[in-house]
Amino acid sequence: MRRPVVFRSIIAGSFLLFGAALLNAQEVDITVQVNYDAVPTTNKDLLLNFASDLRAYLVNYNWGGGDASDKVKCTLDIFIQSVTGDNKYTAQVFVGSQRPKYPTDQNTAVLRLLDESWEFTYLRERPLNHNPYTFNDLTSFLDFYMYLIMGYDYDTYDELSGTDNFNQAAAIANLGQSSGQKSWQLSTTSFSRTQLITEILDPKFRPVRQAIWRYHYCGIDSLTLNPTRAYANILQSLEAIAAVRTQGAQRSLYIKSFFDAKYLEIAEAFRTYPDPSVYLKLARYDPANQKTYDEYRSRAGTER
What we know:
By secondary structure, the chain is an alpha+beta fold.
């Protein structure tokens, strides 16, 4: 899998996307932070190398399929909740990733998830080894999210190009389900890793993946070059995502994850849109964040 660097030009007043020159991209620029406040003092020494071991494991494996100078920026914020046995722990984990907003020097959030139920075993002296065919409650969790991050990232550059990574994440989820761990089971009432990756690969959600590509590649990346065209593409993308939700996917984790990562960016992007009533449309597309869109609409009215 390769991650494209986008080149753009405006010719004769038309917005053109051309030349997806491809860079090899496996590497990640990852920050791993661990909160040990809930860990008893007697157990903290056992976790002394935990953050550094995880980071070394994540940066030393080729997640994307090639070499790259253009690294995928991501974050794991781990909040250990309890010690449940010898070398066994539970944790909540925030997973985040971002990528450049071309052609600016700014970044755009791609993924923002809170996984509330990670159960894992960690022994300080045991090396972490990547094995995609055997379930491990620690490394399989890490593998799943790295493939998910890479899939999300690729999908923003080239339509459906994250499929290989998503398939790898799905294979890990299947191992997790077979392990019997509750946090890997399907659920439509709470966050579920397996539910999320199942939705992403479901043909019913193919229009969402295509819309997410359009939102980034033809929308957010284009705002400084051709705002009119970019706004049209963003609105078309959001309308397509909303349409899938209204057709029987009201509780979609995948759609929720998109708007959780994007709603502030969407609201901010339309501050310079000529018609403040656009925020009414945004609220229809993303009713969970209506309050934010209403606030921006009121602010836009006073700024003009």
